[in-house]
Design brief:
single chain, 302 residues, mainly alpha, Vanadium-containing Chloroperoxidase, domain 1, 2 domains, 15 helices, 63% helix
C-alpha cells in the first residue's frame, strides 16, 4: 500500500511501546487517533495511485502547460449565425454526408481512433513503411507524446466557445456513435483530431522528406475525415491544422523533442534500408481517399 501503510505501521509500533511503559489512557487514545489518520491517508494515496487516467493510452507530452500555444489567443471566433463562413460550413457538411457508408466513410471511422497501436499506422501508406512499437520505437513514442501536446493546445478555445457539433445540429449519425455522448460535452472548435493529424504530418515530413507530398496529403485528409464523420465543421478543421502547426513550431524549441526527432530519423532510415512494408492496405486507402464530396476544399475540386 506504499508510504501511507508504512506510516501506519510505524505509528502503531510507537503507540504500543509508549502505552506499555507509560500506561497513560489519554496518550493511548491520541496515538490510536494518529494511527487512524495514517491508515486513512495510506488508503487515499493507494486509491489515487490505482485510478487510471481519463485517457489511459495517453503519455505525458513534451511541453509544460504554460508553454503550449494558446488557441484562445491565436485563432478567431468560430463563424457566427448569418455569416457566409457558417453557410459554407453547412454546405460542406451537407455534401460530405453523401459519403456515408462508402469506403471513405470507413476510412474516416478508422481515422477517428487515436488509440495506439492502431493510430500509429495512419501514415504507413504515405511513408511506404511501418510505424510500430517494434520497428520504430522512438518514432512510436514521439507520436504518442506529441499527440498529448497538440491535443492540449486546442483546449482553451474549445472550452471558451463550446461550439455545437454538426451531428447535434443536423440530427444525422456519425461514424463513431459510441463517442457521441462525450463529443456533445466537448467543444467542436477547433478540431483536435485535425490538429493532431497535421502536426504528425509536419513531423513526419522531417523524418522522411522524400515522401513529403504524400504525407501532407494524408495529414490533410485525416482532418477532412472529421467532416465526413459528421463530428466537425470545415472551419473547425482549418483552425485545427493551424494549432497543429503552432504546436510543432513550439516543440522545436524543446531539446528533448529535438533529440527524439533525431533518433526517430536514424531509426526510420534503418527501416527504409530494410525495405519493410506498410502495415495497411494501401490500395484500399488510396481508393477511399479518391472520393470527394462536392464543394469540399480538396485537390479534386480545384
Amino acid at each position: 500500500m506504499g508510504s501511507g501503510a508504512k506510516s501506519f505501521i510505524q505509528v502503531n509500533m510507537e503507540a504500543s511501546q509508549m502505552t506499555r511503559y507509560m500506561g497513560n489512557t489519554a496518550l493511548r487514545n491520541i496515538m490510536i487517533f494518529l494511527a487512524c489518520i495514517a491508515i486513512t491517508a495510506g488508503f487515499a494515496n493507494f486509491e489515487k495511485q490505482s485510478k487510471p487516467s481519463v485517457v489511459p493510452d495517453r503519455l505525458p507530452g513534451y511541453l509544460a502547460s504554460n508553454t503550449l500555444p494558446n488557441s484562445e489567443a491565436l485563432i478567431p471566433s468560430p463563424p457566427t449565425a448569418g455569416s457566409s463562413a457558417l453557410a459554407l460550413d453547412y454546405d460542406i457538411s451537407r455534401n460530405s454526408l453523401t459519403l456515408r457508408d462508402s469506403p471513405r466513410w470507413t476510412l474516416a471511422t478508422e481515422d477517428a481512433d487515436l488509440m495506439f497501436p492502431r493510430a500509429a499506422g495512419t501514415f504507413s501508406c504515405a511513408l511506404n513503411a511501418p510505424i510500430t512499437e517494434h520497428d520504430t520505437p522512438h518514432l512510436y513514442i514521439l507520436m504518442r507524446r506529441t499527440l498529448t501536446d497538440v491535443s492540449l493546445s486546442t483546449s482553451k478555445a474549445k472550452n471558451k466557445y463550446m461550439r455545437t457539433r454538426p451531428f447535434v445540429v443536423n440530427k444525422e449519425r456519425t461514424c463513431s456513435p459510441n463517442d457521441e455522448q462525450s463529443l456533445m460535452k466537448n467543444g467542436s472548435y477547433p478540431s483536435g483530431h485535425s490538429a493532431i493529424g497535421w502536426a504528425w504530418a509536419l513531423i513526419l515530413t522531417e523524418i522522411s522528406p522524400e515522401q513529403a507530398d504524400a504525407i501532407l496529403a494524408r495529414g490533410r485528409a485525416f482532418g477532412q475525415s472529421r467532416v465526413i464523420c459528421n463530428v466537425h465543421w470545415q472551419s473547425d478543421v482549418i483552425e485545427g491544422r493551424f494549432m497543429g502547426a503552432a504546436t510543432v513550431a513550439r516543440l522545436h524549441a524543446d531539446p528533448v523533442f529535438r533529440d527524439d526527432l533525431e533518433s526517430a530519423k536514424t531509426e526510420f532510415a534503418a527501416v527504409r534500408a530494410k525495405g519493410l512494408k506498410p502495415t495497411r492496405d494501401c490500395k484500399a486507402e488510396a481508393s477511399a481517399l479518391a472520393q470527394y464530396p462536392q464543394l469540399a476544399p480538396w485537390p479534386a475540386n480545384k
